[in-house]
Amino acid sequence: YDRQARPLVVVECKRPEVELTQDVLDQAVRYNMVLDVKYMIITNGTRTYICRKGEMGYRFIDYVPVYEQMLG
After folding, report:
1. What is the reported pTM?
2. In terms of CB atoms within 10 Å, which of 14, 19, 35, 63 comes out highest?
3. Is 71 in contact with 3 (CB distance < 8 Å)?
């Protein structure tokens, strides 16, 4: 949550044996249609993907932003 208690990130956690497919990403995107957060993190404990929502849609990033970066 941000400093105004609004959702800031969606984290979708799957079991390690669950492959992270387009369907898993689509599920997180559907959640975000309601929450409208800037970041989504999808993980199965073995593999992790981080996305940032921008004007042109979602973009994968290769780092986990710190809280202050998420606020910006």
Report:
1. 0.85
2. 14
3. yes
